[in-house]
């Protein structure tokens, strides 16, 4: 039976710990809270599919990386600092994949230095040349993988579509043999093909991706040992939606692996690179209602978290379930519900959590609430804290991990001194 999502609009606890306690104990509101058991559960579902690499760009706190590592999951990095995060969390270089379309100076230095031996997954011909030149004689016998843009893409938003002729990602499918020849020039071998074409998936489209992967691998030839389907596994953000059918997903890719093994005459390792699927549901942004006001016919709940803490609604028009937590110090909870707009404290019209793509503000039906009650933006573990900023000089929120019923701080709330530490005056 398919797993069905269910999100309620009134909440009292997260992973067994009272929300009010979480909101007051670790530096105050707003605060990010993660349920470790959800992360463990999702890792366990994915590991039977093949080699799993966590796309840490979704949630890069080192405590989360360590938790994921304990589940036998490898890691993907897209910057020099993400490579360093992985090393700090205890990953060996060979367990890290660096995936990008360019090498900046820091990234080139670390993948040829402290993280030498990590998987280098290149998204441009220039990366191959720069890597080969930097390695010099050490390039002889070195393996790389290539990220291929198959000429089409997919995604819930144009901003998450990473394939097609207007996408910057990957080596164009018509240049695969150029990439192989360039690698050969430096004595390197293309040992893997990676293809990630956008967030979300449907099986009709996935079949097309599998076909493109088969074509691309055949162009590279018998040196290919691994294929990676990238990430983009969706999770439900609204109640009543079904989770992806992982068995059907795996069957399509394993069929592709079998075809390629027959074609190439040797074993192919299948890799998957999820981010959102592992951490999204685990994360909650707890924020306090600081004003309840009416503008003409519209009711607003204004909270102390803004798009500096959770950018997805402003950036993509993303939907997040919202729940209300009643503050027991305020007395009996109010009854009823109302249609409200939920906004933050920033000096921007776009600082609204209830909006659709294109910035269209919409209302959400929520329980009646008061100033001092709490509001939880749910399914916020992916691209939440990781995309946070200091716009309006807002502090980065603390982060808390709840594991086995105990909550512990895994990131302190930023201070003013930290905010201005690199400024010279």
Q: Tell me about the largest β-sheet.
A: 9 strands, mixed
Number of strands: 22
Calculate the mean pLDDT score and round it. Answer: 94
Judged by helices, strands and strand pairing, the structural class is alpha/beta
Describe this structure in words.
With 425 residues, the protein is of the alpha/beta class. It has helices at residues 19-25, 36-46, 62-70, 80-88, 105-111, 125-135, 176-185, 203-220, 246-264, 276-279, 312-316, 416-419; strands at 13-14, 17-18, 31-35, 51-55, 74-77, 96-100, 119-122, 143-149, 171-172, 189-194, 226-228, 269-272, 283-295, 298-303, 322-325, 337-343, 355-356, 360-361, 364-367, 374-377, 399-403, 406-411. Strands 3, 13, 14, 15, 16, 19, 20, 21 and 22 form a 9-stranded mixed sheet that branches. It is 27% helix and 24% strand. It is elongated and about 70 Å long. α3 links the parallel β4 and β5 (74-77). The protein is built from 12 helices and 22 strands. 45% of the residues are buried. α4 runs parallel beside α5 (105-111), α6 packs parallel to α7 (176-185) and α8 (203-220) runs parallel beside α9 (246-264).
Task: Reconstruct the topology from this structure.
Layout: E1 13-14, E2 17-18, H1 19-25, E3 31-35, H2 36-46, E4 51-55, H3 62-70, E5 74-77, H4 80-88, E6 96-100, H5 105-111, E7 119-122, H6 125-135, E8 143-149, E9 171-172, H7 176-185, E10 189-194, H8 203-220, E11 226-228, H9 246-264, E12 269-272, H10 276-279, E13 283-295, E14 298-303, H11 312-316, E15 322-325, E16 337-343, E17 355-356, E18 360-361, E19 364-367, E20 374-377, E21 399-403, E22 406-411, H12 416-419
Parallel strand pairs: 3-21, 4-5, 4-12, 5-6, 6-7, 7-8, 8-9, 8-10, 10-11, 11-12, 14-16
Antiparallel strand pairs: 1-2, 3-13, 13-14, 13-20, 15-20, 16-19, 17-18, 21-22
Helix pairs in contact: 4-5, 6-7, 8-9
